[in-house]
C-alpha cells in the first residue's frame, strides 16, 4: 500500500547516504581498534576498560559492514549464476555455527534448475542473513529446511527457509523492515532491511510468515527473466 511505498523510498535514500558515510568510517575504526589493543597490552591493569572499548568498536564495525553491503557497486555485478551453488556456499559458511547451536541444516533443491541473472555476492549476503536468523531463533536446536523450487508458470525461483524457532511476536512482525529493529542482545537489526533491499533490486519479493513459539517461514521469490530487471 501507499504508506509502505513512501516508507521504503525513505529507507532507500537513507540507506544510500548511510552507505557512503559507512565507507568513510571504516578506516578510522581500524586505527582505533589497533591502538586500543596496543594500549590494552601496555596498561594491563586497565584491560577491563580497553576490552569494552574493543568490543564496542567491533560492534560499530558490524553495523558499518551491513551498510557497506548496500554501498558496494553492484550495478555491473549481475551475471547468470547457479542458485544451488550460491546457497551451498552459504551453507558451508554457516555449518559451524549451526552445529554450535545444535541445528541441522536440511537442503533440498529441484533438479535442473534454470540459471538466475543475479548479483552473486549480494544474494549470498541475503541467504547468510536469513539462515543465520533461523539458526539464532533456535537456541535449543532443531532443523532449518532450505528448499529451492522453480515455478514454471510464474517463471519464478522460490527459495524457502523454514525454521522451528521462537517465531516473531506480532509487534515485531509489524515493524519488520525498520532499520535497527532487533530483539537480540548483540543484534544490529539491519539484516532483514538489507536483505529485502537486495531482493528488491532483483525485482523479487520476500514474504515472511511467522508465529510466536512455532517458527518462521521466509519465502524469497526471484523472477527469472531479464524483462523484469529492466526499468530498474
Ligand atoms: P538481527 O538479527 O541483528 O536482530 P535482523 O534484521 O536480521 O536483525 O532481524 C530483526 C529481528 O527480526 C530479529 O532481532 C528477530 O527479532 C526477528 N527475526 C528475524 N528472523 C527471525 C526468525 N527466523 N525467527 C524469529 N525471529 C526472527
Ligand atoms: Mg540477523
Automatic annotation (TrEMBL):
<feature type="domain" description="Histidine kinase">
    <location>
        <begin position="20"/>
        <end position="226"/>
    </location>
</feature>
<protein>
    <recommendedName>
        <fullName>histidine kinase</fullName>
    </recommendedName>
</protein>
Amino acid at each position: 500500500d501507499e504508506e509502505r511505498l513512501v516508507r521504503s523510498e525513505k529507507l532507500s535514500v537513507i540507506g544510500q547516504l548511510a552507505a557512503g558515510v559507512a565507507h568513510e568510517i571504516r578506516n578510522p575504526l581500524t586505527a582505533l581498534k589497533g591502538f586500543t589493543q596496543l594500549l590494552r597490552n601496555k596498561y594491563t591493569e586497565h584491560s577491563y576498560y580497553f576490552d569494552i572499548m574493543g568490543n564496542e568498536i567491533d560492534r560499530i564495525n558490524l553495523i558499518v559492514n551491513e551498510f557497506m553491503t548496500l554501498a558496494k557497486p553492484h550495478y555491473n555485478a549481475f551475471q547468470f549464476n547457479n542458485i544451488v551453488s550460491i546457497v551451498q556456499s552459504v551453507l558451508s559458511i554457516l555449518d559451524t555455527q549451526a552445529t554450535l547451536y545444535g541445528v541441522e541444516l536440511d537442503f533440498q533443491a529441484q533438479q535442473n534448475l534454470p540459471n538466475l541473472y543475479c548479483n552473486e555476492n549480494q544474494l549470498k549476503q541475503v541467504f547468510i542473513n536469513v539462515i543465520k536468523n533461523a539458526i539464532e531463533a533456535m537456541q535449543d536446536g532443531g532443523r532449518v529446511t532450505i528448499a529451492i523450487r522453480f515455478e514454471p508458470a510464474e517463471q519464478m525461483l522460490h527459495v524457502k527457509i523454514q525454521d522451528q524457532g521462537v517465531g516473531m511476536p506480532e509487534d515485531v512482525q509489524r515493524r519488520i523492515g525498520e532499520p535497527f529493529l532487533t530483539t537480540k542482545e548483540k543484534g544490529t537489526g539491519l539484516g532483514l532491511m538489507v536483505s529485502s533491499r537486495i531482493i528488491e533490486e532483483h525485482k523479487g519479493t520476500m514474504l515472511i510468515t511467522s508465529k510466536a513459539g512455532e517458527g518462521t517461514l521466509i519465502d524469497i521469490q526471484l523472477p527469472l527473466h531479464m524483462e523484469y530487471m529492466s526499468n530498474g
